[in-house]
Amino acid sequence: MTRSDEISAPKSPSLVDLCVQKLIDNVRYLGNVGCIDLHLLEQVLPHCTAEQLMHVEKSTKGRDLSPVTDKLWKKFYEKQYGIKSANEVMKRMREKNVSFRWIKLYEAKGKEMAEAENEALDRIKQLYQKEDARKQSRQIRPCTKVPPSSKRRFWGDNGPGYNVSNVKSNIMKKAKIDMLKSQEVKNLAAMKKNSIQRSQSSSSVMKKTGSISGIGSSSKDPNLQKGYFRGRM
């Protein structure tokens, strides 16, 4: 093999390189990385998202990963909340001569933003409620209590405390009047009247006939005639 062939031949990856690449391909499954060297984590953890890196931080107990992850959290902070906000945080830390891990600053900023969003949502909700209340107050509402009428109702009710029995009595009277005015009742009344007139007419005829027959019989009685002539003689 010539020297040029040795230069152009690809280098075979080492076992460590293969393991690192395998970790990168399956970075979403990472959890506790306490047993992995920091120089290997420097190659693997930059491929994590903020959620994945947070899971690795919470899962790894008893080991400080900040030598590798602190600069990663600073990048996530700048990406999420802006470079200007990150510079303002660093300025305040220098002024107060304090230092915080960027993972803590990232979490604190997230809580602050969530609280600010909730407060803003509450204010918007209150504004909507006030606007709805204002619209409701301007709407026309039906009156639930009916005022007493000054006019007398057709059944004789003078107010809300009318007597139900009077109403029933008036209804019965009206029904009775309607019945008396009906044609059938009129026909029955006419038939009854004609019957009474016929009976009265028959009785008067019978009385007249009786009186006439009485007179005729007394004139034919010989005793009466004799007595009459005796008195005359």
UniProtKB/TrEMBL annotation:
Disordered, as annotated region: 133-158, 193-233
One Pfam family named in its UniProt record: Elongin_A
Feature: compositional bias, Low complexity: 193-219
UniProt-listed InterPro entries: RNA_pol_II_trans_fac_SIII_A
One GO biological process term: transcription elongation by RNA polymerase II
GO cellular component, one term: elongin complex
Cross-referenced Gene3D superfamilies: 6.10.250.3180
PANTHER family in the record: OS08G0169600 PROTEIN, RNA POLYMERASE II TRANSCRIPTION FACTOR SIII SUBUNIT A
Protein name as catalogued: Transcription elongation factor B polypeptide 3
Organism, scientific name: Mucuna pruriens (Velvet bean)
